[in-house]
């Protein structure tokens, strides 16, 4: 038989490499299941095949069967994970909608006076911010004026020393 010429490590390597030749995310449970299934199937097939004198053939068949079964188990796990993520996303959306509805309900109890007071506090904070920004800009302008005057003084003193010969 053809399998007699193939060595077990060659078949095992082929099974592992072949199990990764899928169009799925290599980090998915499907890929992981196929790889583990192929490895376990190859090992079990080699043991069973060895008893009938066909270790290599048994390993190849075991790797194929194990890879197929493992990928199916992994795919189901991927589906379970996707269902759990979808359920969690729906739960978050529901909670956000409930919070929004509660905020609307709470807003019915807010008086015009409370709204006016909140707006007035915001205006005061904005006015304070504008004042702080203006004070900062003025301070920066004074610093630049001092730096300019000191530079002009240093230039004038240097020119004076140069003209006096020293």
Number of helices: 4
Q: Unreliable stretches, pLDDT < 50, 5 or more residues?
A: none
Q: Would you count the extended β strands for me? A: 0
Tell me about the largest β-sheet.
none
Q: Give the overall silhouette.
A: elongated
Question: Structural class per helix/strand content?
Answer: mainly alpha
Question: Beta-sheet strand percentage?
Answer: under 5%
State the order of secondary-structure elements, H for helix, E for strand: HHHH
Percent range of helical residues: over 70%
CA radius of gyration: 39 Å
Question: What is the residue-averaged pLDDT?
Answer: 85
State the distance separating the first and last CA atoms: 106 Å
């Amino acid at each position: 038989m053809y399998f007699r010429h193939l060595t077990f490590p060659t078949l095992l390597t082929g099974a592992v490499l072949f199990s990764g030749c899928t169009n799925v995310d290599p980090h998915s449970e499907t890929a992981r299941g196929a790889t583990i299934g192929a490895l376990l199937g190859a090992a079990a097939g080699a043991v069973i095949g060895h008893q009938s004198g066909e270790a290599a053939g048994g390993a190849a068949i075991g790797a194929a069967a194990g890879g197929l079964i493992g990928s199916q188990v992994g795919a189901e796990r991927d589906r379970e994970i996707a269902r759990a993520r979808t359920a969690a996303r729906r739960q978050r959306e529901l909670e956000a909608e409930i919070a929004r509805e509660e905020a609307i309900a709470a807003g019915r109890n807010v008086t015009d006076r409370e709204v006016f007071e909140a707006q007035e506090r915001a205006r005061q904070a904005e006015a304070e911010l504008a004042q702080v920004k203006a004070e900062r800009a003025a301070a920066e302008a004074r610093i630049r004026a001092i730096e300019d005057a000191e530079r002009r003084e240093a230039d004038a003193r240097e020119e004076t020393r140069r003209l006096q010969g020293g």
